[in-house]
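re: that chain from earlier
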Amino acid sequence: MAVKNAFYAQSGGVTSVINASACGVLETARDHPDKIGKVYAGRNGIIGALQEDLIDTSLESSDAIAALKHTPSGAFGSCRYKLKGLDTHKAQYERLIDVFKAHDIGYFFYNGGGDSADTCLKVSQLSSSLGYPITAVHVPKTVDNDLPITDCCPGFGSVAKYIAISVKEASFDVASMAKTSTKLFVIEVMGRHAGWIAAAGGLASSEDCPLPIVILFPEVPFDEAKFLAKVDEMVKRHGYCSVVVSEGVQDRDGRFLSDQGLRDAFGHAQLGGVAPIIANLCREKLGYKFHWAVADYLQRAARHIASKTDVDQAYALGCAAVELALSGKNSVMPTIVRKSDSPYSWEIGVAELKDVANVEKKMPENFISEDGLGITEACRRYLQPLILGEDYPPYRNGLPDYVRLKNIAVPKKLEGEFQI
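^ sequence. v structure.
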């Protein structure tokens, strides 16, 4: 087998462990110099390939690559850019082939969520459609936990841990102040169509430390009367209440409560601001003083409190992606296969990209309580192992000691600039 170079890139919203997957890809590739030459990272995702803006990762030290495992966000930059169909945008694919040929790239590793899986699927078809041999493997990532087939998605476990901790700690705070001040705390979490992150807020309450928590899921149409009655009941019984609301909560007509009227590169509605909507509703209808917060980037950037389970899985999937490619697999994605809830055990599986791309995995009905405002024991059994373990980064001067790579560009070989 001739030695070929590889392309790796990160796509979509970054996470606290996506760099752990990058570490797995890069370290495993370095272990196979007889099959993979250099790994070129795309600066800002697939855009780096289209614009021939490549980073030579071979110029980074082994220590720097290893430090990626404890560093959050995307070390090479990410993007929200989806390749269009080959029949209507052939020039994009011809450009990719030109770049791949110029830099002798035979492997393509794309680290992202559902839309990224679609991009990876399209690249994997270059061989049959345009005659360029390329092995494309998707490396799963998404805090939304909405990729199908895999038991869970890297990035989710750490966000779930962050939200569960935040809801628990904020609930203790509100309980302290409830007698004469705040009685309601509302926290807004990510999750456009799937309520996995919101569900994690339910882990804050346990049998030995029960807390009054109400959860609003995207999967359950918002029922104002039922919600207000539940909050009122909680406050009257406990003196206070915490509400976890997904940014993707919709009314009965399917409209997002927080739709700002803007669209991203994929045509998705730009969401945000549902927490004050819910908090103000409770004040207007129930008269309760409130505080609200939006977790936003904090929830997905919090590497300091990442789940060890999540870090381990993110790294393992990066390693597995390279191993799959070297074994001749194309148009696939490594997955997490759960073997047992307690004690928790898992192994690596594999899925075909055609079964992954553009498919969203939402919360199962049996994971949402009968009233639609909480989680069930089945959901708790699923979520609990994913937040287990601590994997603290090294600290220096009281702060996490994260790595910033040199990200030295590969000299360009093609003429002209490709317009995105």
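The first strand starts at residue 4 and ends at 10.
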